[in-house]
Design brief:
heterodimer; A: 116 residues; mainly beta; 7-stranded mixed β-sheet; 4-stranded antiparallel β-sheet; 11 strands; globular; B: 113 residues
Chain lengths: 116, 113
């Protein structure tokens, strides 16, 4: 089973709201990723967690706050977002994030976020 | 640095036509190479991968060969179907960072009956 699940599928929020995106995998993977994808563009890496510790933050604004409560779960907390943050947010996981491993990243279906 | 250059789209083909989507890369070391496919409204699905020079990845009739001498990983399929209509992304995995993926810009394929 190579399934990564994400909830919710769609989210509409105002600029003053606080919401969270959730990602889950049960493949025993120890690396998890958040990507942001704008329309007609490739995904852009936001965060990488390795063994539940944040290993990469690609200069993402603090209104995005990731959390990895355990090896199967990854959350993205959203607060005071801007309309330009509207995008598809993709979660992925891989066996490891060891440099040079080439471990395949498996993606979830994404959460389509609209900020009003 | 790492980068992927992918054939610009969109590409429109008739059913049963031959498909080639070009992909070339620049990387430090020997990256793993991937093709991902994204159907409308969905996330990315791994289509195929290759981890070293001369490896051929294949899946669902799609093939790509890791060519180190030309730094290429072109995607091919002998006979496309309407159901192959999607966006295709070529990607490489970072050899120095945390297994980061570097994506090409994506190629939108439309197959018409």
């Amino acid at each position: 089973d190579t399934e990564v699940t994400q909830t919710p599928k769609h989210l509409v929020m105002g600029m003053t709201n606080k919401k969270s995106l959730k990602c889950e995998q049960h493949m025993g993977h120890r690396a998890m990723y958040w990507y942001k994808q704008k329309a007609k563009k490739p995904p852009e890496l936001m965060f990488v967690y390795s063994y539940e510790k944040l290993s990469i933050n690609e200069s993402v604004p603090s209104r995005f706050s990731p959390e990895c409560p355990n090896s199967s779960l990854l959350n993205l907390h959203l607060h005071a977002l801007q309309p330009e943050d509207s995008a598809l947010y993709l979660c992925a996981s891989s066996l490891s994030s060891r440099p040079g491993s080439g471990d395949t990243q498996y993606f979830g279906p994404g959460t389509r976020l609209t900020v009003l | 640095g790492n980068s992927v250059t992918q054939m610009e789209g969109p590409v429109t083909l008739s059913e049963e036509a031959f498909l080639t989507i070009n992909c070339t890369y620049t990387a430090t070391g020997y990256p793993s190479l991937f093709w991902y496919v994204q159907y409308p409204g969905e996330g990315l699905q791994l289509l195929l991968k290759a981890t070293k020079a001369d490896d051929k990845g294949s899946n669902k009739g799609f093939e790509a060969t890791y060519r180190k001498e030309t730094t290429s990983f072109h995607l091919e399929k002998g006979s496309v179907q309407v159901s192959d209509s999607a966006v295709y992304f070529c990607a490489l995995s970072d050899q120095t960072g945390a297994n980061n993926l570097f994506f090409g810009t994506g190629t939108r394929l439309t197959v018409i009956p």
